[in-house]
Design goal:
heterodimer; A: D-Maltodextrin-Binding Protein, domain 2; five-stranded mixed beta sheet; 13 strands; B: alpha+beta
Chain lengths: ~270, ~80
């Protein structure tokens, strides 16, 4: 039995090694054997705090950056990050210059025309209310906010929808940090923002705020790979599943947000 | 589930019966209201603040409340 296990393990290792070698060759780099891990270019949005951005010294960092680093570690690859605009990244993915997009994108019809998406998503992202931590009022819909002061990010669909219901009581901000700052001084009643972006700023800036009620369903997101690149899609999917199981995603979550963001923060009971 | 295994060990729970309970739960979970099925209750929680809110329509039942209350302690356990 022990021998059988040992054979099975060794067969599994051989199969895994072969896959890794094929994967490395598919990336167009030299085999990793003598020269260390093969390099792989992974694309990230340039200004997407806390998911991917550069620090004051120009060093790339962020939640998605850490997740991609761990993915590369498990695949025995050396990550070569490329930071660009979404348009630039889409072209680089299409041309094969970068192996995948390291940020989870919304799986909108437009994005689906440009990328294939990797399952599972590793973070539950949801448009949510942000309120002062001393505010116990319950705001669950835009109608609940009639006559209240709402802050949103300028030029977004959220601004458009909020203005349609609330009109001039909506204040749009170029930077969400400024809206959160105004909310912390109670110059606003509420800010609508994605839960993880809000949670990150609340923690990083030590703001007296809280993420309260969700306003929309969790977004359907995923890492983007070149259209038709099934091998990459499957490899990333398997690696993310390993990271969900081995606790590494949870640890990266804790570092950036203070809790495990791979789990949903909403539930429901349905009648049938 | 043991206390140390819970998503929130001792949550502060708020219960919000609302006229738009079905619609709110449909909106935040993505489960649509159809002629044959609709969300009867939902909950959302904030792990860092150890808070949980249960939302239902004005008419509800202990079965729905109990199920959502379990989510308040154990987080997302269906998948």
């Amino acid at each position: 039995m022990t021998e059988l296990n040992s054979c099975a393990q060794s067969a599994e290792l051989t199969r895994r090694d072969s896959l890794l070698l094929l994967f490395s060759m598919a990336l167009g780099d030299k085999a990793m054997a003598a020269e260390g891990p093969a390099a792989v270019k992974v694309g990230f949005l340039r200004h997407y705090k806390p998911f991917s951005y550069r620090d004051a010294n120009g060093r790339p960092l962020g939640f998605d950056f850490d997740v991609a680093s761990r993915v590369c570690e498990l695949l025995q690859l050396r990550m070569d990050p490329v930071l660009d605009s979404l348009e630039g990244l889409a072209q680089r993915v299409k041309s094969g210059e970068i192996a995948w997009l390291g940020n989870q994108l919304l799986t909108t019809p437009e994005n689906r025309r440009r990328f294939d998406f990797v399952r599972p998503a590793y973070a539950s992202i949801q448009l949510s209310a942000v309120q002062h931590e001393d505010d116990d009022r319950d705001f669950l819909s835009l109608e609940d906010l009639l006559g209240k002061r709402l802050g949103v990010l300028a030029g977004t669909g959220v601004e458009e929808q909020a203005r349609a219901v609330l009109g001039k009581t909506v204040k749009a901000y170029e930077h969400i940090e400024n809206a959160l700052h105004d909310l912390s001084h109670q110059r606003l009643d509420l800010v609508l923002e994605e839960n993880l972006i809000a949670d990150y700023h609340i923690r990083a800036l030590r703001l007296p705020l809280k993420v309260a009620a969700p306003f929309a369903a969790p977004m359907t997101v995923g890492l983007g790979v070149r259209k038709g690149d099934r091998e990459m899609q499957e490899k990333l999917s398997q690696t993310l599943q390993s990271m969900l199981k081995d606790g590494s995603l949870s640890r990266i979550s804790e570092k950036w947000f203070g809790y495990d963001v791979s789990r949903s923060r909403v539930s429901h009971t349905a009648s049938h | 589930m043991k206390k140390e295994q819970r998503t929130i060990d001792e949550p502060r729970v708020k219960f919000l019966p609302r006229e738009d309970g079905h619609d709110y739960c449909a909106r935040i979970t993505g489960i649509p209201v159809t002629p044959t099925s609709k969300p009867m209750a939902c909950a959302f929680w904030n792990v860092r603040r150890k808070e949980c809110t249960i939302v239902t329509p004005l008419q509800t039942g202990y079965n729905y409340l109990g199920h959502e209350l379990r989510h308040c302690f154990e987080g997302s356990f269906h998948d």
